[in-house]
Design goal:
Length: about 90
């Protein structure tokens, strides 16, 4: 199974490398106030992909922290609870 996983990873990597090699033409990214950034297309694509992934992670940070806090409170409550005696045998 590991061989199949690594084969799939290799194929995806090679496809992305070929995509990057085909998109090296410089493009101009225009902002407001006549600001412009000229860079290869693949650099801009990967930059915006990374920025989107970062924003997605940051959007989840609040939820994850709240859930961790709730889990720790529930664990403390579970530790403080008295153990339930086993049922009598038949």
């Amino acid at each position: 199974m590991r061989i199949v996983t690594w084969a799939i990873r290799l194929v995806v990597f090679l496809l992305l490398a070929a995509f990057a090699a085909k998109n090296i033409e410089p493009v101009a990214l225009r902002f407001y106030f006549d600001l412009a950034l000229t860079a290869p297309l693949i650099v801009l694509l990967l930059g915006f992909f990374a920025a989107g992934a970062l924003f997605g992670v940051l959007a989840l940070v609040g939820t994850v922290l709240r859930q961790r806090r709730e889990i720790s409170v529930l664990k403390r409550q579970g530790d403080a609870a008295q153990p339930v005696p086993p049922p009598p045998p038949f």
